[in-house]
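The following record pairs a protein chain with its ligand, AHG.
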Amino acid sequence: MIHRNKITTLTEFIIQRQSEYPHAKGALTRLLNDIATAAKIVNREINAAGLVDILGTVGKRNIQGETQKKLDVYANEMFITALKGGGECCAIASEENEKVISFSNEFSEKGKYVVAMDPLDGSSNIEANVSIGTIFSIYKRVTEVGGGTQSDLLQPGIHLTAAGYVIYGSSTMLVYSTGKGVNGFTLDPSVGIFCLSHPDMRFPETGKIYSINEGNYIYFPEGVKKYIKYCQENDAPTHRPYTSRYIGSLVADFHRNLIKGGIFLYPGTTKQPNGKLRLLYECSPIAYLAEQAGGKASNGINRILEIEPKTLHERSPFFVGPRSMVETVETFMRQNHKK
Ligand code: AHG
Ligand code: MN
Ligand code: MN
């Protein structure tokens, strides 16, 4: 008998999943395929970044006051173009655009979905050839006609239809969920196809890694300071001291922690009480993936997925990882909360 290892491509997998939803007409399938196609093109450009003069800043600042890199602009344009041309998405919120991009042409305004994205995450790492990513989240629109609006996008993560990320690393992967677990696909660059490589990704029950920008230590809340000291204590039964790992790319830090078992922390600080990460297009989609992988995501007190964004670019403290690790941080936060 001949045994053949069957390769499942991302396209096949998405279509198989569609058949699990009897009323699905293929719109989400087409939308996910559009995102995957844009990701491949962005990947090609990132790979070539060392060869062509695309590094460095464009000079403009994005609305967060951070200097935009050329690749941020390129990735943003590429995803917008793919989604606009696809016809399934009627509006986009992006880190790189102050306002919602509404598609009000006859073709796109029929789209049932809206997309919130961080087109290039970890972009300060580009020059150093360190892993970067794209984060995307998909919601059903709440308005009924015309181009999508801000109210279609300001939804809490519990209403997500799908979310995922692309990691441009030593290999490029697309990891996503439509609410039935998390699956990871690795790009075979020779043929340009994403192949299922990490089926049903789950956080380990607990972990030995903590990821935080410890340079900000003096600005952290008391609970976080105490938790860091807890991570560094010697306690064999709980495998402490933990190992510290911090890349400075949320996607790459989260991806490593998901596979190896670890917690990522970006707390509020005395300088930035809500931290740095953006609720709508960084925290919520990553929180959704974390929960789908059996983990937990919190702002220290509340579940990230239940927080309703009031504005497109609002920030939130962010703690994400295996359930037990996040619960420990929450306990420290509660115990050290200033009344
Ligand atoms: P972006 O490149 O989209 O602005 O995001 C960078 C984010 C995130 O990827 C990372 O976790 C965090 O910034 C790192 O911040 P610090 O440099 O303050 O540690
Ligand atoms: Mn980011
Ligand atoms: Mn970004």
